[in-house]
Amino acid sequence: MALTSPRRSALSDQVIGQLRNQITSGEWPVGSRIPTEPELVEQLGVARNTVREAVRALAHNGLLDIRQGSGTYVVATSELAGVMHRRFADADPRHVAELRSTLESSGARLAAERRTAKDLAQLEALLDRREEAWDSGDAELFVAADATFHLAVVAASHNEVLTGLYADLADLLRDWLRDDVGGELRPAHHMDHARLVEAIRAGDGDTAAAEAASYPFMCLARPAEAGG
């Protein structure tokens, strides 16, 4: 069979794939602004229309948000995460807290039963990073560190379905935490997660589940002036 020139749609699919990889790999993290259209044209070596088509496709799928006059930003790490983000963006904060509590409590209970030495080492490292982020006073850094820690707790359950669902909801949960914390860290924002790690280490599923379940509602119980 004779070779033929690549179709325009095939080239566009390749560009979409490359941009998606930048997002899913974390090279372009959630909240970051991606390179401008001229920059992408230069980096990819394709026509402006092809880049524009790829960016619009990823925006349609919920991974990117095109903001006129500001740029294009990453808002989700997968198509499903994008759907979740759009579907529940305006949900009642208490309902989001209830969902987070349910998932994290189940994940923590399983983590206490199934955690490995590697899981425990990672949880300790991420707990330290969370404390360092708190001490820095950088609210966005703290939100990212806290979200990463909680995802690691759920991942230690070694339940791929639960972990995948939590990961796809992570962008929504991160937005909820970001709104709760606000732009400035205050004493009321800090919650000790060492007891959660110790319960998982000890194999105490009941305590681990109770600790994980309490965090979202402790956030909602904060006084309004304290950023809750």
UniProtKB/TrEMBL annotation:
Highest taxon listed in the record's lineage: Bacteria
Q: Keyword annotations for this protein? A: DNA-binding, Transcription, Transcription regulation
SMART domains (UniProt xref): FCD, HTH_GNTR
The reply on keyword Cytoplasm is no
The residue ranges of the HTH gntR-type domain are 9-77
Keyword field contains Ligase: no
Gene Ontology molecular function: any one: DNA-binding transcription factor activity
In terms of PANTHER family, this protein maps to: REGULATORY PROTEIN GNTR HTH, TRANSCRIPTIONAL REGULATOR, GNTR FAMILY
Q: What's the protein called, per UniProt?
A: FadR family transcriptional regulator
